[in-house]
Structure formats: structure tokens, C-alpha cells
Amino acid sequence: SVTSLLGPAQIRELAEQAGIRPTKTLGQNFVIDAGTVRKIVRQADVVVGERVVEIGPGLGSLTLGLLEAGADVVAVEIDPVLARLLPTTVARHLPGLERVDDEPTADGAPVVRLRDAEGHDRLTVVLSDALDVHVLPGPPPTALVANLPYNVSVPVLLTFLERFASLERLLVMVQAEVADRVAAPPGSRTYGVPSVKAAWWASARRTATVGRSVFWPVPNVDSALVRLDRREPPAIPVTRGEVFAVVDAAFAQRRKMLRSALAGVAGSSEAAVTALVAAGVDPQARGETVDVEGFARVAAQLAVVAR
Ligand code: SAM
């Protein structure tokens, strides 16, 4: 088993040895607190032998926590220095693993695996921008667990929910504000595009607040954990693309009533009113009061007219 998780001293040492200077543009704030790592792993309900995808493993804080819990991890990292260092760090903590330099993925991303004595893969490192990953090596993952890079956290969530239908659960650490937006119910102040789009795929709730001191370097925002559980999309005959186009239009001008906000996608304000009424949504309402089912009904009405 893992002898220890990474603390402040080990994180600094690893960064120093590898010559890593954390960059803001890649959201590189590394977790230096084992308690936070264990909380994330616990809230993800990771089970032994489960295939888990981690985005942005960084120096390996969370990766080691996931491996300690018995998960097999496929980790996608954009920074080549960090991706190269990760198998070495993990091999040092989990003795007996053999390193295999694998074929690139179908997306062309380099892959390194660590397998145990039985030939079973415990860690697979994919060097890539997560948003460019369309295929993951190995068995389909059932959970995504990550301390997400803040600048791409919402796109990563939505992209992985869409591309990897095998994902049942996601437990991610994001900027506190983003957590609020993703988990917001209709009618609340923070309800917006990320809330509706996340609700198309999953039910989301904010499960914890995380202070700044668990990171190195210390970020200038608070963080929070969000748990998403996949659900069936609304049972309405409409595509994801049609619904999301209506959602984007509805929130593009936040203060506008839906009848004018949707005039563009509907063709005219009159057509928007007809579709809204047929969908059972008040044309005078604003986007922030409509739930994902409401948007799906409106999109279905507009799609019927367009056909
Ligand atoms: N998981 C580590 C931890 O908890 O200490 C690091 C988390 S750090 C907030 C975000 C990580 O995501 C960094 O390692 C960064 O290099 C990586 N990253 C940033 N943008 C990425 C992207 N588009 N695709 C994959 N990894 C990315």
C-alpha cells in the first residue's frame, strides 16, 4: 500500500528536483494536505478495483490517494514535465510496479503505464490537454475524480460527461464560485449556463468548502468540492446541441425576457413567444427561472418549427 501521501515538504522537494515553477495559466496549485486528499477520495465513493480518470494529476497528491483507496487510475496531464515525473513518484510510493512505455492513444497522446506483478495496470498516464482526449486507454472509467485546473473546469466537466458515458460519478475540486454555479438550482442568484448544462447530464451538489492553505502555491480564491451523479437526460425528443443553443441564447443577455433573448434562435420574437407558450414557459420570464426540462421543451418546440 501507499506508505504516505504527499505533504508540504515532499511537494516542494518534488517541484524543486524537477525544476517545476507552478504556472497560473495552467492552474497549477498543488494539494499539500493529506486530509483534503482523503476527503476527496471518500466523497467520490471510490471502490477497490474501480477505474478512475483523473484530470491534471500534477505532482501526484490525489493520484496517490486514489491508488491508496484501490482505484486503477488513468491520469491526463497537459504539462510534459509533470506527466514524465508522475510514474516515478508513484513507483517510489507503491513498490513492485513495472513501467511500460505504451503506444500513443488514437488521439496521438503519449502513454506510460505502471503495472503490478499480475500484469494489471494501476496507473496510466496520458500526456494531453484533457479537452483533446476522445479515447482513453484501457477499460472505461466509472468515476472522474480531480482537482481541476480552474481556467477549464466547466468545459472539462461537460466534455467528459458527454464523451465518456461510462462515467457515473464525478467528484471535483473547483473554485468556490464555480461550484456554486454548477450546483445552483433554478431561480437562485448563481443559476446560469453551467448550471443548466451540468443538469442536462447529472445532478450536482456542493459537498464541502476548501480553504486556500491546503495548496502550494496558495491561490487567491477559495475552493469547493462538487459531486455530480449522472442521470438520464430529460425524456424530450431533442438533441443536446439544440438545447444548449437555446440555453446559450437565453443567458447571453441576462436581463432580457426570454421572448426577446430567444428571438434570434427562433427567427423572430413572435416565433419565440409561440414556442415558449407551447412549451409551458412564460415568455416574460428570464432564463434564470427555467429548469433544464423547460429549456428542453422550448428547444423541442423550436426544432419542430425549424423542421
Ligand atoms: N491534482 C494535483 C493536485 O491536486 O495537487 C494538481 C491539481 S492543479 C489545480 C491542476 C493540474 O491540471 C496541473 O497539474 C496542470 O498542469 C493540469 N492542467 C492544466 N490544464 C490542463 C488541461 N487542459 N488538461 C490536462 N491537465 C491540465
From TrEMBL:
Show where the Ribosomal RNA adenine methylase transferase N-terminal domain sits: 36-232
Pfam families, sorted:
RrnaAD
The record's subcellular locations are: Cytoplasm
- Which catalysed reactions does the entry list for this protein? adenosine(1518)/adenosine(1519) in 16S rRNA + 4 S-adenosyl-L-methionine = N(6)-dimethyladenosine(1518)/N(6)-dimethyladenosine(1519) in 16S rRNA + 4 S-adenosyl-L-homocysteine + 4 H(+)
Entry binding sites for S-adenosyl-L-methionine: N29, V31, G56, E77, D129, N147
Molecular function per GO: 16S rRNA (adenine(1518)-N(6)/adenine(1519)-N(6))-dimethyltransferase activity; RNA binding
Per UniProt, the keywords (alphabetical) are:
Cytoplasm, Methyltransferase, RNA-binding, rRNA processing, S-adenosyl-L-methionine, Transferase
Name the EC number(s). Answer: 2.1.1.182
Instruction: Specify where it is mainly localized.
Output: cytoplasm
Q: Which InterPro entries match?
A: KsgA/Erm, rRNA_Ade_diMease-like_C, rRNA_Ade_Mease_Trfase_CS, rRNA_Ade_methylase_Trfase_N, rRNA_adenine_dimethylase, SAM-dependent_MTases_sf
GO annotation, cellular component aspect: cytosol
Q: Which PANTHER family match?
A: DIMETHYLADENOSINE TRANSFERASE, DIMETHYLADENOSINE TRANSFERASE-RELATED
Q: Which family does it belong to?
A: Belongs to the class I-like SAM-binding methyltransferase superfamily. rRNA adenine N(6)-methyltransferase family. RsmA subfamily.
| HAMAP family found in the cross-reference section | 16SrRNA_methyltr_A (MF_00607)
Q: What does this protein do?
A: Specifically dimethylates two adjacent adenosines (A1518 and A1519) in the loop of a conserved hairpin near the 3'-end of 16S rRNA in the 30S particle. May play a critical role in biogenesis of 30S subunits.
Protein name, entry field: Ribosomal RNA small subunit methyltransferase A
Per UniProt, what is the name of the gene that codes for the protein in this document? rsmA
